[in-house]
Amino acid sequence: MTEAPHTHFRRHRFPAEIIAHAVWLYYRFPLSLRDVEDLLAERGISVTFQTVAEWAAKFGLKFAHQLRRRTRGHFADKWQLDEMVVTIKGERYWLWRAVDANGYVLDALLQSRRNKAAALRLMRKLLKSQSTTPRVLVTDKLRSYSAAKAELMPGVEHRSHK
């Protein structure tokens, strides 16, 4: 995160490395502004939480774009697909998720059904967003995954467990 160009940090009292570190802490971890203030204070840097909020508002979008550029195309080639039931206002829905081998959530989809069409929709969405096919696809024993994989990705190795 500290690789951000120093020109963005002109006319600030603190060095670019401190600003970048504070914004990175705030967006990377589930920390409040006061938590970031405390972490910086432990390192001997006296910054108020209002200052961290201003930095986050001013530089947060730039950091998000840099992170997105860095991680694009760097996901693992082993995808794990799973679904779970979610109740929303008394209605049952299925949350379909795709996670790579490193634990990054590739995509998620909320559907009212748990069938081949829903699995196809998730896989199409994944292939479009990732623009690459995985080497290995790991799923549970739901037959919808096998049918959708056979239709969209016939050359991909499929492992089912549980």
From TrEMBL:
Transmembrane segments: none annotated. GO terms for biological process: DNA recombination; transposition. Residues 78-156 form the DDE domain. One of its GO terms (molecular function) is DNA binding. Keywords: DNA recombination, DNA-binding, Transposition. InterPro entries: DDE_dom, IS_Transposase, Transpos_IS6. This is Putative transposase. It comes from the Bacteria.
